[in-house]
Amino acid sequence: MGPVLSESLWRRLIVAGIAIGGFVLLYEVNMFDSHSAPPPNPADRSPVVAGNPLTFTATAYCKGTTTAAGIGVRSGVAAADPAILPLGSIVNITTEDTKYQGVYTILDTGPAVQGRHVDLYMWSCIEALDFGRQQIELTVLRLGWDPEASAPSFIDRLFRRRETARTAAPRPRQLPEPAPNSPDNTKGASVRESDGATQPPAPDLTPEPSSDP
User: Fold this and answer.
1) pTM
2) 13 in a domain, yes or no?
3) Rounded CA gap, 107 and 94, in Å?
4) d(CA 65, CA 73)
5) What is the count of structural domains for the chain?
6) Three-state SS at 185
7) Residue 139: C-alpha distances to residues 87, 128, 160, 192, 196 (Å)
8) 166 belongs to a structural domain
9) Which CATH number is 61's domain given?
10) Which domain holds residue 67?
11) Is 124 a domain residue?
């Protein structure tokens, strides 16, 4: 009886291992990966401007080891349409789940990532599957690698606001100077003359009477 039970147990373990392996392979084959999935709608390829909040569609992917930019995949990396967000672009993403909010760098592309669509890299395929497809708010902080195509920072906006306020401030009103012959000008001249040094008294030139007879 003992050898029969032992043989039955081994058969069950082998069958269970085969079933688990088949499930894993089937899951990997059917795993959602937006890099290879067809786009659901025609791509919106209208240009974007740095600094303006925009509505994008976001998905997630978990496969691959190296991005299109030649950098290894990691958290904070996203894929996008290079015609909209070229490689090197930096974006700030706001989602319903604050866990995925933050700054991402566009370092990857994909045939299904077209138009206003970004694909966020995640380590866990289960987490990427749970993320699904959702609408997000995306603000471009920099387009491509060019620092000149960046949104103005808080410090830039602050100094620009102060400079504008300083330029628009009214200048103090200056009173017109009085005319040369006006009473005010004459009075001023008299005052200026009186402010000078004290003049010595004029000598008395009257002749003294003679004492001779």
Assistant:
1) 0.57
2) no
3) 19
4) 6
5) 1
6) helix
7) 16, 22, 21, 69, 73
8) no
9) 2.40.40.10
10) 53-149
11) yes
